[in-house]
Design a protein that fits this description.
heterodimer; A: 61 residues; alpha+beta; two-stranded antiparallel ribbon; 3 helices; 2 strands; 13% strand; B: 215 residues; mainly alpha; 2 domains; 7 helices; 0% strand; binds protoporphyrin IX containing FE
Chain lengths: 61, 215
């Protein structure tokens, strides 16, 4: 039990080396996930009944 | 004390020498009428990128709530109790989300140059929040009461002491670091968040960069 739990904090971690750039897989994963989330926030349509179209519909009524 | 015989109620006096009046005027003038909690926004705000400020704010609320529970249990609680460990993990992961959301928020505001139109103070308070939040989490890592905290303090002390800050900010003093972490820095963060959000409500959401092209 202790062994399986302590796996999380054990070991030096995996690193990716690319010339002078050295980064842990964990940090790289988080950065990539943040960039993906940022791009998604820009491209995924925002569900809204309050937009221009909804306003126009309301005026037409 | 003055007594008034006319119909004006006490709350309506505008005597500029009265501190209460001046303070009321200040508070009322912070944001334009009706703009403190508006329920409608310009159409360009209908994008997920505008949600990240509020996501940052919400994770900060979870950080403060879980941190308050940890404060009741004490710094060593999470070493000996599974509930303490759980609350500690809630605290850590809400901090991770807080920083992730804050940085995506920052990227969004950077690429839309959201400091345009007298919004410089919004950006500047944001920059302060970014810096002070890092300092707050640093003192949090120093408060773990484990070898990680000890190692971070040992690695950090020379750099910080060489700036002279060690006189009142001694990373080798866990009691001092804990009070910075749970009292002083959170107070500063919450205060600046208030100013940041008042600034946003004061000026309204910045129009997109290409708004003038569309007329
Ligand atoms: C504790 C961290 C922070 C919190 C709780 C926070 C919260 C918010 C909220 C709720 C808004 C309005 C909604 C939105 O547009 O997303 C906002 C707007 C803004 N934030 Fe932050 N923010 C934080 C950090 C930052 C940082 C680090 C920066 C940049 C360095 C920044 C720059 C801005 C700017 C420029 C606006 C105004 C946008 C406009 O006027 O349209 N904020 N913030």
């Amino acid at each position: 039990m202790i062994r399986s739990l302590s796996v999380v904090a054990e070991g030096p971690g995996r690193y990716i080396s690319w010339g002078v750039v050295q980064i842990s897989v964990a940090n790289l994963t988080i950065i990539v996930a943040m960039i993906v989330l940022f791009v998604l926030a820009l491209v995924v349509p925002f569900p809204s009944g309050h937009g221009e179209e909804a306003d126009q519909e309301r005026h037409q009524k | 004390m003055t007594t008034s015989t006319d119909a004006k109620s006490a709350a309506e006096t505008t005597d500029p020498k009265n501190w209460t009046n001046r303070l009321r005027g200040r508070i009322e003038g912070l944001v334009p009428p009706g703009q403190a909690l508006p329920d409608r926004q310009p159409v360009y705000v209908a994008s997920w990128i505008y949600v990240f400020g509020v996501l940052t704010l919400s994770s900060l609320a979870v950080v403060i709530l879980s941190g308050s529970v940890l404060a009741i249990g004490g710094v060593q609680w999470w070493h000996v109790s599974s509930l303490g460990h759980f609350v500690n993990s809630v605290h850590l992961w809400s901090v991770e989300l807080f920083f992730g959301f804050m940085v995506i928020h920052l990227w969004g505001k950077f690429w839309m140059a959201a400091w345009r139109g007298k919004r410089a103070m919004t950006w500047i308070t944001g920059v302060l929040l970014f810096g002070i939040s890092i300092g707050t989490s640093f003192t949090g890592f120093l408060s773990q009461t484990n070898f990680s905290a000890q190692w971070i303090a040992g690695e950090g002390k020379d750099g910080i002491n060489s700036t002279g800050a060690g006189a009142f900010f001694n990373v080798l003093n866990p009691g001092q670091m804990l009070t910075w972490h749970v009292v002083l820095l959170p107070l500063v963060v919450v205060l600046i968040v208030l100013i940041h959000i008042i600034q946003v409500r004061r000026h309204g959401v910045v129009p997109p960069l290409d708004a003038h092209l569309e007329g």
